[in-house]
Amino acid sequence: MPEPVEGAGFSVACYTVDMSWAGSRRLLIVAGLLLVVIVVLSTILILTLPKEPSCSDGLMNQDETGVDCGGSCAYLCTADVPKPSVTYIRALESHGRIDVVGLVENLAPSAAVDDARYTIELFSPDGVLLESRDGVIDLPPGESVPLFIPGFASSGLTIGRAFLSFDESSMNWVTRTNARNLPRADATRVEGSLDAPRVTANFFNPSARPLKDITVIAVVHDLAGTVIAASQTVVDSVGAEGSVPITFTWNEPFTATPGKIDIQAVMPLP
């Protein structure tokens, strides 16, 4: 009950509020329950309110031809793009190690993919997996892209088959036209001795801008077209519409008479 306080002609009632521990606990419990109700209601609203369709919502809900691909989306649907073709993948024993060389062709004339993930596997003649390695490769539209991995495995393995496969989840295809003026090699010659052959060529840059740090791969085929050797070099620089000599060397004989020699630059997508 309020206790009157007498003053000059009037009295004031003073109230004493007793906030006990039990009362404080009840207040905290009520506040916590209210917070839980607010969180639950907010979550329900977020999940039930309609969302603006997008190309990253995991739904086929606009003009897409697949889930988050095709139509107005940046990425093309994998089903709408021809799969890359592996022209060849070969394991070569060289210099006491096993190198792997390959050629991948992008069959799509107007689609490209950056950093497509691949796996190369080496199998024994009876199908046992001996070695595997992952990597990434750019696939420009309509181009054949060389691969060369020196020291893929140590020597002494008997290789029956090499296999290259792509991780389709990494194949983010985009529409792109091929207007690149690629460097090329000409005046190719096989020189040196039988025990230490070398291949020389003239590396020409036809574009209007200089090139720097370009990896160039040489693949030697025998007269029947089988790959028998491969090597690579790096061109430090070549001026616009200029050329430089390049040389590839081996410290052991070719296993057969060389026939065709392919020399290609590895040119990443811009």
Q: How are the elements arranged and paired?
A:
Blueprint: E1 3-6, E2 11-14, H1 21-48, E3 85-94, E4 97-105, E5 111-123, E6 129-139, E7 144-154, E8 161-166, E9 174-175, E10 184-192, E11 197-204, E12 211-222, E13 227-238, E14 243-249, E15 258-266
Antiparallel strand pairs: 1-2, 3-4, 4-7, 5-6, 5-8, 5-9, 10-11, 11-14, 12-13, 12-15
What does this structure look like?
With 270 residues, the protein is mostly beta strands. It has 4 domains: 3-48, no CATH class; 56-80, no CATH class; 84-178, Immunoglobulins (Immunoglobulin-like, Sandwich), CATH 2.60.40.10; 180-270, Immunoglobulin-like (Sandwich). 10% of the residues lie in helices and 47% in strands. It has 1 helix and 15 strands. The chain has one helix at 21-48, and strands at residues 3-6, 11-14, 85-94, 97-105, 111-123, 129-139, 144-154, 161-166, 174-175, 184-192, 197-204, 211-222, 227-238, 243-249, 258-266. The strands form 5 sheets. Strands 5, 6, 8 and 9 form a 4-stranded antiparallel β-sheet that branches. It has a 3-stranded antiparallel β-sheet with strand order 3-4-7, with no helix packed on it. Strand 5 and strand 6 (129-139) form a beta hairpin. The chain is elongated.
Quick gist of this model?
The chain has one helix spanning 21-48; strands at 3-6, 11-14, 85-94, 97-105, 111-123, 129-139, 144-154, 161-166, 174-175, 184-192, 197-204, 211-222, 227-238, 243-249, 258-266.
Strands, count? 15
Beta content? over 45%
Per CATH, which architecture of the largest domain? Answer: Sandwich
Q: What is the residue-averaged pLDDT?
A: 86
